[in-house]
From TrEMBL:
Organism in which the protein naturally occurs: Hydrogenophaga crocea
Family affiliation: Belongs to the class-II fumarase/aspartase family. Fumarase subfamily.
Name listed for the protein in its UniProt record: fumarate hydratase
Record domain Fumarase C C-terminal: where: 407-453
Domain Fumarate lyase N-terminal: 21-340
Catalytic EC class: lyase
Example GO biological process: fumarate metabolic process
Any one GO molecular-function label of the UniProt entry: fumarate hydratase activity
InterPro entries linked to this entry: Fum_hydII, Fumarase/histidase_N, Fumarase_C_C, Fumarate_lyase_CS, Fumarate_lyase_fam, Fumarate_lyase_N, L-Aspartase-like
Length: 454
């Protein structure tokens, strides 16, 4: 044995699984299957989301406790597994989960990574905890992984996304309450249209967010049904008949979420329609946010000049003092990524055959990223842009032309075509519509004043 081999041997330990012996770096808490996965799936840099890892640890914690209560696992072993899972959920072992997302479509490699790490942490010189026989008792990747994805997504929506959405909506409503007296030019097709108040314009943004929230809440209800207890194909083979129901109760108690067993365990493992629906509701939110961010960007531009944007940071490396709509641009990129994630999830949702959906990791990666991006993006936009917007009242008033509103109201009395001719002439000559209408004999000054009131 040469010197390099001797050093490598000293820095590694040997473990066995059904495929034989494998060398594992000394000091790491995973086992043979994780090490094989590291070697066989060395693909790109995307790792399993931390939210999913922590949710899987929660599933394992509850499973150990439920199995102990059902007499299927020794209480001391269950307690050791639960304590190890708590340490993982606290983030103390994040580096122990190094596997790429690009692995088996069931997520088995990451599931075994969890089983092995918890078994390692729970073992003592006097007691060996087995990753399959103890940590994974009564479970399968096919029910644990989708259950963990649902939990991670629901927790992200409940604890991060909805609070950020509500904060943004409330900030918009607060801004609208300050500008109820600001009448401004409306725009359709990017052209001048009937006037409205700035409060009405902002109120429409808030209404979009209310509608998006309703859709997310409805989609989240469908995602509350969990696959746990179905084991390999949905039949519940190799687990206690009460395991699934007790797991749902334990997970609900641990998270505060309104959880239930899936209406059909076979469907819950063979397809992930509920997650597809949940992300579809996020797509609706992304579209609403894109509208809001783009409106703010245009209204803060020198061409319109209706809003003064917060000067958070220098906008240019060469042009001194420049202020750019950076928060709008950041949120627009967030929405672009979410829309792209929706395409990926839509295709991934089709990769189900017979009793198993075979693209769980990529579905989880994109779903959880969208939740995280939208929550962070809304929070940033609300704090660093929306709160600091100020109306440019003089600029708004100067740009407001009454001619469009006047012509629209006159049309009810003199006809659409006659009103359109007057409006076009007013635009071309710059003369007041009232003056032209009276001059052309279309109506009297008194009639004009009366009819344009509404």
């Amino acid at each position: 044995m040469d010197a390099d081999s001797a050093v490598a041997s000293a820095a590694a330990r040997t473990e066995h699984d059904a495929w034989g012996a494998i060398h594992i770096p000394a000091g790491v808490p995973w086992g043979a299957q994780t090490q094989r996965a590291l070697e066989h799936f060395a693909i790109s840099t995307e790792r399993m989301p931390r939210e999913l890892v922590h949710a899987m640890a929660l599933v394992k914690r509850c499973a150990a406790q439920v199995n102990a209560a059902l007499g299927a696992l020794d209480p001391p072993v269950a307690q050791a597994i639960a304590e190890a899972a708590d340490a993982v959920m606290a983030g103390r072992w994040d580096d122990a989960f190094p596997l790429a997302v690009w692995q088996s479509g069931s997520g088995t490699q990451s599931h075994m990574n969890m089983n092995e790490v918890l078994a390692h942490l729970a073992s003592t010189p006097q007691r060996t905890v087995h990753p399959n026989d103890d940590v994974n008792r009564g479970q399968s990747s096919n029910d644990v992984v989708p259950t963990a994805i649902h939990l991670a997504a629901l927790l992200g929506v409940e604890r991060a996304l909805l609070p950020a959405l509500d904060a943004l909506r409330e900030a918009i409503q607060a801004q609208a309450a300050r500008v109820t007296d600001v009448l401004k030019t409306g725009r359709t097709h990017l052209q001048t249209a009937l006037p409205l108040t700035l409060a009405q314009e902002m109120g429409a943004w808030a209404a979009q967010l209310v509608q998006a929230r309703r859709g997310i809440e409805q989609a989240a209800q469908a995602a509350q049904g969990l696959a746990i207890g179905g084991t390999a194909v949905g039949s519940g083979a190799n687990t206690h008949p009460q395991f699934g129901e007790r797991m749902v109760q334990a997970l609900a108690a641990a998270t505060g979420l309104a959880l239930r067993r899936a209406d059909d365990a076979f469907a819950a493992q063979a397809a992930h329609d509920a997650l597809l629906g949940l992300h579809a509701s996020l797509r609706v939110l992304a579209v609403a946010l894109r509208k809001i961010a783009d409106d703010v960007r245009w209204m803060g531009s020198p061409w319109l000049g209706e809003l003064r944007l917060p000067a958070n940071e220098p906008g240019s490396s060469i042009m001194p003092g420049k202020v750019n709509p950076t928060q709008s641009e950041s949120l627009l990129m967030v929405t672009a990524q979410v829309m792209g994630n929706d395409v990926t999830i839509g295709f991934a949702a089709t990769l189900a055959q017979f009793q198993m959906h075979a693209a769980k990791p990529v579905l989880a990666l994109n779903l959880l990223q969208s939740i995280r991006l939208l929550a962070d993006g809304m929070r940033s936009f609300e704090r660093h842009c929306l709160r600091g917007l100020e109306p440019e009242r003089e600029r708004i008033a100067a740009a407001l032309s009454p001619a469009m509103l006047q012509a629209t109201r006159l049309a009810r009395h003199i006809g659409h075509e006659a009103a359109a001719v007057l409006y076009r002439e007013a635009q071309a000559t710059g003369r007041p519509l009232r003056e032209l209408a009276v001059e052309r004999g279309a109506l009297s000054a008194a009639q004009f004043d009366d009819w344009v009131k509404g």
